[in-house]
Amino acid sequence: MSPKDLTAIYRLLWKQYGPQHWWPAETPFEVIVGAILTQNTAWKNVETAIQGLKKKRLLSPRKMTEVSSSVLARVIRPAGYFNVKARRLKHFLLFLRQRYKGDLKTLLKRSIGPLREALLSVNGIGPETADSIVLYAAHKPIFVVDAYTRRIFSRLGFLGGEESYGEIQAVFMKALPKQTTLFNEYHALIVAHGKNTCAARHPRCSRCSLERLCEYAEGRRPS
Ligand code: SF4
Prior knowledge:
Layout (H helix, E strand, L loop, with lengths): L2 H15 L10 H10 L5 H13 L5 H6 L2 H7 L6 H19 L3 H6 L2 H9 L6 H11 L9 H10 L8 H11 L4 H17 L18 H6 L3
């Protein structure tokens, strides 16, 4: 993918959807909790779980550390896999306490490489979650790759579909200027496109701003 292609796609998506104002959270800790809860579930379920945490006044590192795993699991139940996710939140909180004395600011101040590495050392935090935290909680320029990115760019003909997370990320990072605002908006627009237009089963190609660039759409056009 050339910088020109990626910039053109970004502009077309922006024209179609406008600014996305990501990440929808009030604090960096809320971003982190959301990034862990959103694994394998739709965002609306995460929103309900986060509302529950706010209602019970548990949305701070200190309060969440104090509450038991079973109570935490009950509150985040709407997010699905609630026992696993409660454990993951607890793993993160333990890591924060042991390595950073519970101080989120100190963790998020670290530069991209060490911050990413530290996050990846936490049980239950994989590359997509770690990068979401680096980009949306620490506001540092890293490109987040997800299933929507893979699907859309494979259909466009820019990916083969077998590339690893790191390989896809490297393509975007190499071609685009390393700007937090650009990476923030680009990933959010990809998610908007994957949800609203380039759906897994029935993509709405006729209303897609990328249609004329897309190999998948081209193969479906009547000759
Ligand atoms: S043209 Fe269709 S397949 Fe291609 S990106 Fe748009 S919605 Fe997806």
